[in-house]
Design goal:
Layout (H helix, E strand, L loop, with lengths): L3 H29 L8 H80 L8 H32 L6 E5 H18 L3 E6 L4 E5 H18 L5 E9 L2 E8 L6 H4 L22 H11 L4 E5 L5 E8 L23 E5 L3 H13 L3 E5 L5 H10 L7 H15 L1
Parallel strand pairs: 2-4, 8-9
Antiparallel strand pairs: 1-3, 4-5, 5-7, 6-7
Helix pairs in contact: 1-2, 2-3, 2-8, 3-7, 4-5, 5-7, 9-10
Length: 404
Amino acid sequence: MKSPLNRRWSWALGLALSFVCLVAAVYYYLSTHQINVHITSRVFMLILVLVIVIVFFVLPVYSVIVTNEIRKRHRVEKALIRAKEEAERASKFKDRFLSTMSHELRTPLNAVMGFSDLLADKRYGELSERQQRYVSHINTGGRHLLKLINDILDLSKIEAGRLEISREDLSVETIFGEVLSALRPLVEKKTQTLSSLAEPGLSVHADATRFRQVLMNLVGNAIKFTPEGGRIELEAQQVESEVQVKVRDNGPGIPKEEQKRIFDAFYRLRKSGEGTEGTGLGLAITESLVKLQGGSLGLESEPGKGSCFYFSLPMAKAVREAPSRVVKVARKAAATPKILTIEDDRMASHLLESQLSSSGYEVISCNQPEHALEMAADFAAAGNHAGPADEAHERMGDLAAIEA
């Protein structure tokens, strides 16, 4: 295969020879027909020399320059491809690392928080005031670390585009009730007022878990930054074909210079007279979750007059609440209810057994997941289920599907 340089030389030489022949022919024609055009032999030689210089000096230099530029571009493209491949490998390694470490960190953290809850339970013995305070510090630190792990995992999934969103029609009143119920202890601890107001029958088309997470983050921030005795309001109303949700508080407000950066990852809002709090990931994750569900998150705030975070989601048809089914189970008064737990981690299994035993259950533990289906079948066959037979068979089918 001929190189681009050889091809250029051939073309340049051919064009030069053609040009020389053309000039010679024109000069001969003008000379034989005695046409006075003031072209002397010196001018002709000058033109000829100029053509030779262009062909044998200018064009080779130009060809070398162009060839070097092409080679540089190829090297840069190869370097970019290698960098992209390395970045993709690093991203995959990071995802595997986070997935593995999340499990390895969550398991002992759950054990730490669970056993600290057991220590705080008076049924296991009385603690002194200092011991209760230490146990509370252990539990608070564990929950903070667990939230940090969950936030980092959510952020990495969002950045990698691997966060799955499963949308469905949801009742706004129901989700509001769940959020208020979960955050009520924090509100009561700071003697705050938390209220909700939603139009009857209002529904949104969103992911239930992520919609609840968005509300928990926004209301949790309002509780954290609103002083004691403050007021937090959760509102929802229809705006055209969307549902607008607002989280309003009468806290200190957010300065304008911080409003521009408040949705950046790892940016932490400063409380007046205090250090920074939190991980700085909550609002960044919240904004991304709202966008993934087809909405946008906004902020209205003025120092000294509180803040209002708002977002809109697609409206859905009214959701009918299914009536709760009451299952009556006949039990012998002297029989102790039994529960089968399947857990391969020794500490977690011991924690479950301790909590369930203290609540009056007889616990049967399975620490080998490969035998879980067999033990569950024996457990159900012995009549240890809290529902009718068809429901027990349905649960067995779920277990079989999970094992598969």
